[in-house]
Amino acid sequence: MTHPAQPKASHYINGEYVEDTSGAEIPVIYPATGEVIATLHAATPAIVDQALDAAKNAQKEWAAMSGTERGRVLRRAADIMRERNHDLSVLETYDTGKPYQETSEVDATSGADALEYFGGLAGSLTGEHIPLAGGDFAYTIREALGVCVGIGAWNYPTQIACWKGAPALACGNTMVFKPSESTPLCALKVAEIMVEAGAPKGVYNVVQGYGEVGAKLVTDPRVAKVSLTGSVPTGKKVYAAAAAEMKHVTMELGGKSPLIIFDDADLENAVSGAILANFYSTGQVCSNGTRVFVQKGIKEAFLARLKERLDAGIKMGDPMDPEVNFGPMVNENQLNIVKKYVALGQEEGARLVTGGGYPEKDGFWVEPVVFADVQDDMTIAREEIFGPVMSVLDFDTEEEVLARANATEFGLAAGVFTADLTRGHRIAAGFEAGTCYINTYNLAPVEAPFGGSKASGVGRENSKLAINHYSEMKMVYVSMNDVEAPF
Ligand SMILES: NC(=O)c1ccc[n+]([C@@H]2O[C@H](COP(=O)([O-])OP(=O)(O)OC[C@H]3O[C@@H](n4cnc5c(N)ncnc54)[C@H](O)[C@@H]3O)[C@@H](O)[C@H]2O)c1
Ligand SMILES: CCCCC=O
């Protein structure tokens, strides 16, 4: 019998499901059991062409609608997503293995927030009037870029499809979205919902594929902008390919973010922050604060309480069980990466405080891991693991810890826990990171910009700032006077 996760077809183009079985197979593996639950096919060149043509043909008509009309479609889509939260969350759990307890709270909800927020902004996307000398003036017109390509990672498939689609569509662009090959299911539902909400055919399309399909989309002359969520190495390739054609980009990439806990911090909140910064979504969150710097006076109390909370609180098991709060890794490859780093941490002399076991069952399971006595030059403190592995490092002074926190190529996120708010703001000002937290961690409300600096990215998602990354300004100079020429 066909599994309920199997979609009608692999791609969604021009308002309908489309299949071409000559493309490479994409098996969808349920991470909790290792079972193949669906099979899709990568887009062939003909499918990529069809999707880009559909997006190109739909764009002018979509941009010609008033912002209010476009916004209404996005807000309807948000309502539909909320109404279907249960089904969408079950599918997100099949796609990623994340517990239903999480997906039912965060994923479709966060996607719906983006659709609602950018739907609300769509009617107010204007230019400005600029008075000039002698009665002349200029005005600016905010214009859509054209066809935008979105390329997703596997940790938040629904959210990523919406964080890219909502601002793009609000500005009058159309989109071709390629989900990660590890999690191809959820974006198809986003595309279906857009059409059901009234988006004209071709406005939001989904094609499946591995990296080659992404690469083909990035260099196509019909494409004006590329927004990638992925790793730094992929980001460098995609940014370079897009730059060769002078395309706009948004790069949401990886990190190795610092979380600093001072002696004066509220211990319970600091432990909660460190848990949110390392173990939510089984550690598969880009902004995770995986280098946890703990001031020496509070270190042993912090480690003891953290271990207690993990021992008592982690519930691994069937991700569909609403009591379960810790799922498997997304796939075997990612599990093996975690295993490699856990072994490396031990070889390099870090102290294993808890975890490091691999439950013997089908699927891609790992216990959450905490290493203490980690040194700055250890591999586990320098490289992104993208799994539930926390490194705890000691520090003495504020000056020292800030320099060590910033000593990384990455700059996605950073956090500080302290009772001294003056110090909290001082540290936030000193962080070399795009997304900073004082006395909390890993919140990403749609109203606030999200993204990284340094190697972690270019541009921002969410908030009014995202509009600038999906539109450009045309200036019109109007003379009210005779034209003076030198000869
Ligand atoms: N900053 C953020 O908002 C954010 C959010 C989630 C994940 N991430 C990062 O994503 C990474 C994990 O996701 P992943 O393993 O899917 O990343 P990845 O870089 O392997 O793949 C990301 C996407 O890029 C595609 N791709 C691969 N090569 C390509 C190429 N040459 N041209 C075009 N597309 C190509 C893949 O098919 C996939 O869809 C981590 O580094 C994580 O930190 C960042
Ligand atoms: C906190 C939101 C994270 C999105 C990236 O993985």
UniProtKB/TrEMBL annotation:
CDD domains: ALDH_F9_TMBADH
Keyword Oxidoreductase among UniProt keywords: yes
Alphabetized GO MF terms: betaine-aldehyde dehydrogenase (NAD+) activity; metal ion binding
Domain of life: Bacteria
Enzyme Commission number: 1.2.1.8
InterPro entries for the chain: Ald_DH/histidinol_DH (IPR016161), Ald_DH_C (IPR016163), Ald_DH_CS_CYS (IPR016160), Ald_DH_CS_GLU (IPR029510), Ald_DH_N (IPR016162), Aldehyde_DH_dom (IPR015590), BADH (IPR011264)
Residues forming the catalytic site: E252
UniProtKB keywords: Metal-binding, NAD, Oxidation, Oxidoreductase, Potassium
GO biological process: glycine betaine biosynthetic process from choline
Domain Aldehyde dehydrogenase: 17-476
Family: Belongs to the aldehyde dehydrogenase family.
UniProt protein name: Betaine-aldehyde dehydrogenase
Organism: Halocynthiibacter styelae
